[in-house]
Amino acid sequence: MEETKRNLADVVVERIERLIVDGVLKEGQALPSERRLTEKLGVSRTALREGLKVLRARGLIETSQGKGSIVANLTVEPAQTPMMHLLSSQPRTLYDLLEVREMIEAESARLAALRGTAADHLLIKRRYEAMLAADSEDTDASTHARLDHAFHLAICEASHNPVLVHTLSFLNDLMLSSVFASVNNLYHREPHKRVIDRQHARLYNAVTGQLPEQARRAASQHIRSVRDGFSEIEQEEQRLVRSTLRLEGWS
């Protein structure tokens, strides 16, 4: 009897770990109630509690009195390392980050076009439409950035590659910084904004149209275009600084 209880607890651990890895249960998200979990997993309340105890010991969930269990912040320690601080604080690393984004997002877009389900397409469609709707509203740059990032993350999740998804999630703060920079520096420039809109449309159509190579190219071209836009802005600023210094007699 004791052996059976342990086996059922192992089932609970395995199923919930899989839901976390697959991104169905996300960091900070509350687990369903004990009643719902026992129904969904087909185990007794005793076995469920044993399984949750193991998950708590592994640091995967946190439980508080009266509030139930939530998925723990799985990347809190690495995100606070000195290297992560340097990467987020040095402007020059933005270009390195965009190279990483291009590699991750180009491949995830290709896989999303190959593997995405109807449910994935619906989620991507919702993120895309939310991003478009923000254009017709008085939306601040930070919200624009988060909507932009959510669209790209939905595509990554449709790749059904947990490692890709968790790599992107691990870099979430840095990625969001780069997207915010894109929104802040490019969105208010009408020619750049039109280019970004067209690229997002191409990416959306290729992924939901299940065209893997077109999706890969669209994602890659989008990130390269953003990088080129930053470079152009940077050069403009440098020319402005030089001409201002000459005007003020510093040359």
Write the layout of secondary structure elements.
Layout: H1 2-21, H2 34-41, H3 45-57, E1 61-64, E2 68-71, H4 82-89, H5 93-115, H6 118-135, H7 141-157, H8 162-170, H9 172-187, H10 190-208, H11 212-247
Antiparallel strand pairs: 1-2
Helix pairs in contact: 1-3, 5-7, 5-10, 5-11, 6-7, 6-10, 7-9, 10-11
**SSE string:** HHHEEHHHHHHHH
Which stretches are poorly predicted, pLDDT < 50 over at least 5 residues? none
Mean pLDDT metric:
80
Sheet with most strands: strand arrangement = 1-2
Could you say which structural class the secondary elements and strand pairing correspond to? Answer: mainly alpha
Total strand count, please? 2
**Helical stretch count?**
11
| Domain unit count | 2
Question: Which radius of gyration do the C-alpha atoms yield?
Answer: 22 Å
Estimate percent helicity. over 70%
State the end-to-end distance.
87 Å
Q: Quick one: overall form?
A: elongated
Largest sheet: number of strands, sense, barrel closure: 2 strands, antiparallel
| CATH C-level label of the largest domain | Mainly Alpha
CATH architecture of the largest domain: Up-down Bundle
Portion in beta strands: under 5%
InterPro entries: GntR_C, TF_FadR/GntR_C, Tscrpt_reg_HTH_GntR, WH-like_DNA-bd_sf, WH_DNA-bd_sf
Domain HTH gntR-type: 6-74
Pfam family, one: FCD
Keywords: DNA-binding, Transcription, Transcription regulation
